Amino acid sequence: MGDYHSHGGGRGHGCCPTMDLMRSEPMQLVQIIIPIESAHLTVSYLGDLGLLQFKDLNADKSPFQRTYANQIKRCGEMARKLRFFGEQMTKADISPSAMPVTRTHIDLDDLEVKLGELEAELIEVNSNGEKLQRTFNELLEYKLVLQKAGEFFYSAQGHATAQQREIEAHQVGDGSLDSPLLLEQEMLADPSKQVKLGFVSGLVPKEKAMAFERILFRATRGNMFLKQVAIDDPVTDPVSGEKVGKNVFVVFYSGERAKTKILKICEAFGANRYPFTEDVGKQMQMIDEVSWKISELKTTIDVGLIHRDSILKNIGYQFEQWNHLVRREKSIYHTLNMLSLDVTKKCLVAEGWSPVFATSQVQDALQRATYDSNSQVGSIFQVLHTNESPPTYFQTNKFTSAFQEIVDAYGVAKYQEANPGVYTIITFPFLFAVMFGDWGHGICLLLTTLYFIIREKKLSSQKLGDIMEMTFGGRYVIMMMAIFSIYTGLIYNEFFSVPFELFGKSAYACRDSSCRDATTEGLIKVRPAYPFGVDPKWHGTRSELPFLNSLKMKMSILLGVAQMNLGIVLSYFNAKFFRNNLNIWYQFVPQLIFLNSLFGYLSLLIIVKWCTGSKADLYHVMIYMFLSPTDDLGENQLFPGQKTLQLVLLLLALISVPWMLFPKPILLKKQHQERHQGQSYTMLQSTEEMLELDHGHSSHGHGNEEFEFSEVFVHQLIHTIEFVLGAVSNTASYLRLWALSLAHSELSSVFYEKVLLLAWGFNNIIILIIGFIVFIFATVGVLLVMETLSAFLHALRLHWVEFQNKFYEGDGYKFSPFSFALLAEDED
After folding, report:
1. Residue 1 pLDDT > 70, yes or no?
2. Which parts of the chain are coiled coil (predicted)?
3. DSSP letters spanning 646-701
4. Residue 67 and residue 347: Cα distance in Å, rounded?
5. Residue 567 to residues 233, 657, 714, 807, 809, Cα–Cα distance (Å)
6. Tell me: the pLDDT tens digits for 389-415?
7. 72, 436, 512, 753: most buried by Cβ count inside 10 Å?
8. Alpha carbon of 7 to those of 130, 213, 598, 682: distances in Å?
9. Is 440 part of any domain?
């Protein structure tokens, strides 16, 4: 397989300038031996550089068995404390300082001690504050109980006194049968024989009040008296700290057993009990004492909150810096854990992938780390030769990154295979615009995306919603889509479905000034053809739809065949780059012949028909090319020798199918046998089939047993069938360009004619305003949002399936370097 970085196609080779996006950067597997005293600083400098992807050399060890497990645990604990501070600041509505993170040196041990002290102080302040707040809420409830229960007793005493007077008056006036019994008389006469009633007072949640009363009644068998009243405003519950609607209650009972039951029921219902005295004087005194304590506690709580806020503000000034440092240190130790410890335990061995162009930068970082750490021994840097497939790395900028993401969403390119992202920059927005062609809608899209581009610095630092974030990320894709939509809109001559004579006057005019026969006899040509795009006079005529349908359908096939041919040509460049001659002669050549024998020929017929103005039926020509290839074409003949050409092309198409299917598996088997017999040492490793076979059978013996001819043949059969059927279905798939373009044009026309013009015809300002608003919402909602998304998805499908499946394997993996810059992006 050889060392991958030495393949052809490196930077600056050949007559043409390098294309950074055409093929991924040449990569190399490097080994670095780092003295243990400079390991931390070395990894830190490499993280700043961000051009080295470390390999995990301790994959067989658990996280707890690794060298720097304790340091990671410490960093995790500090990160937990910082999260705690962040939560506290969020609760207190204090935002961390937006000062930029500076590279001031902070010792990790000092930071650990400081964070521990701040956490302990903050926990103590919070604990004291919670206790004070709970006491404060209890006192507020107690005050309510004193006030409401005092009202109960005061009204009850007044009522009892009035009743006593009434009984006494009744006894003096009448000593008949209604007089009290002897026992009652004795009890009235002797207070010691009266039943002593106890009572319990407190607050119960309002939603539990009915159930509370019912349970009390059942538990005491009715031997209790409950009095309760609702509190107007919700009160803060001392236990939960939440606002709850409550009732003040007083339960009167007789006997200790009843008291025990009542207390248990209060506990079960979460009713807070408070002591109460019957003495009115003592009640007033207690209310005054509670009020004084409440005011005193309020002052103490406010002072505590001010103290807590001052602690959090001090933390907020350095919060981002501390957070960045802890994340940075944790990532460094995670990386150090991927390095293997040398047997002498004096140095660490690192392996990783790096772009070839970054060699000098990596070596410079190693030298700086050795110097800054005062190490006596420098780090050793060496390039390893390997059979492993390197990661794929494209250097993108803010413009090209979104297009590359479109390709990567399908699959990351195999190392150094041709990158569809280069062509996607132009073909993707162009195919979108073919479906979306309207220069009015294109201008609306362009203005929207220009807003994002002009304010990109400000918007990139803000938190946007999911949809806005996605739109902002693809702002340059949308800009290109808008520019191409304006271009195709000018070709279609549609501005919100209205044609304009922008490039001169129409080539057609009426036969007379009245234009009465325009719809019956038609127009006559009075000038040369309209110089650019569709003549404005076509719009609104009876022949508009047949004409545009024919134009767009044929244009879709031409564009589709051109893009599929581009895909097949790219497969040639892939095969040439990887020195795979089998793929050139037995894949690229027959595929190119098959596609162009059928659909390349159809494209030629379309162009000839346009140029000659012939009325030949192309459907008939293509169908009978297969059904009756020897029949005369008659009036469908477009040029001399067409019949002979058709027979040759049909023969080539039929030959190309077995050409794709049989030779490649047979030659692979032959080359495999020659290699194992020592007769040939050609570089067979470059073919994907041999890669699979070597990988799958490397542990077996040599000879014919290693080569599974049936597997390779079935694999090739599937590829052949897929291409032959795909050539037909993929060409038909490009007709979506015509269908969506027609749908967009017709929808735009309906909104203009049936909404805006209809409202205009009423000659009423209110109806006109309503019609204009409906038109704007329909245009924005349907045409600028839904249609944009629809055309985007269809263009995506054409690239992923119809274009990329001709040459793109997409089975690579991304280059993920250890980088502090990526760490900051993840944090955002």
Report:
1. no
2. 101-135
3. HHHHHHHHHHHHHHHHSHHHHHHHHHHHHHHTTS----GGGSHHHHHHHHHHTTS-
4. 12
5. 74, 18, 24, 6, 12
6. 999 999 999 999 999 999 999 999 999
7. 436
8. 69, 88, 37, 15
9. no
Distance, CA of 111 to CA of 228 (rounded, Å) = 57
- Give the angle subtended at the CA of 53 by the CAs of 48 and 55, to the nearest 5°: 130
In which element (H, E) is residue 230 found? strand 224-230
- Name the one residue in this structure whose structure tokens are 């297009």: 403
Report yes or no on 716 lying in a domain: yes
**Distance from C-alpha of 654 to C-alpha of 659, rounded to nearest angstrom:** 9
Work out how many domains the chain is built from and give that number: 1
What is the domain range of residue 740? 554-675+709-762
- Encoded tokens for 472: 């902002």
* pLDDT tens per residue across span 675-718: 877 544 444 444 444 444 444 444 333 444 567 889 999 999 99
With H, G, I as helix, E, B as strand and everything else as coil, classify residue 251.
strand
Angstrom distance (rounded) from CA 93 to CA 87: 10
Q: What is the CA radius of gyration of the chain?
A: 43
- Number of residues that make up the chain: 828
Give me 109's structure tokens: 């041990």
Q: Calculate mean pLDDT across residues 80-100.
A: 85
Residue 7 CA, distance from chain mean position: 37
**What does the pLDDT read at residue 178?**
47
How high does pLDDT run on average in the chain? 86
Q: Tell me, what DSSP letter sits at residue 519?
A: T
Q: Is residue 805 part of a domain?
A: no
Give the span between the Cα atoms of 252 and 199, in whole angstroms: 4
Let me know the angle formed at the C-alpha of 803 by 653 and 590, rounded to the nearest 5 degrees. 25
For residue 210, pLDDT over 80 is answered with yes
Q: Looking at the domain assignment, is residue 659 inside a domain?
A: yes
